[in-house]
Amino acid sequence: MDTFKLKGLRERLIKSLSERGITNSLILSTMNKVLRHHFIDTALSERAYEDLALPIEDSQTISQPFTVAYQTQLLNLKAKDKVLEIGTGSGYQTAILCELGAQVFSIERSQILHKRAKRILEQEGYHPLLKLGDGTLGWPSYQPYNKILVTAGGPYIPQELLNQLVTGGFLVMPVGDKKGQRMVRITKTGEQNFQEEKLDYFSFVPLIGKDGWQL
Fold first, then answer.
1. Catalytic residue among 63, 90, 106, 110
2. Does an H or E element contain 160, and which?
3. Residue 63 falls in the annotated catalytic set
């Protein structure tokens, strides 16, 4: 259900994202269309369009809308891009990618979140391919990917993800320690050649896995 009040709050959020430097109008219009309040507990519905990370199940969070927009903008998506998402989480970022026309392959390590996201995404009419597993290993069966998006902070970029990126593709990931990370965008310029851009600072939940943080 989408009320008049929620629509107004969402429009105010979109305006604030634009003022903070999100310049891609397609991303802004998409975020105005995807109902973030459907991806969180109903008790938090009226907070869905505050520019804040909010709690979801299994001690995780749904990312701050600015962070979702920022990472998505860095991907420079094109229609029908194959996108590997590491960390399905609530499914909200997944829905944004689907709405933008990407072919989405998303991995989540938490069975609770994997099942929850699958249910909500189906209800919202999105049909990405979802997998339960270690995202740091990627999803070799469907490689190569035009874009790879990592939605958790790791100590370094897993080599396996770089291997699964098509030449000319982008990988976006926050890299640092468990307290804070710097957003990094990698452009694969050759079979084993990469160009790295270090961007703004963020704070993400930790990337858990073989090539991430250990439990």
1. 63
2. helix 159-163
3. yes
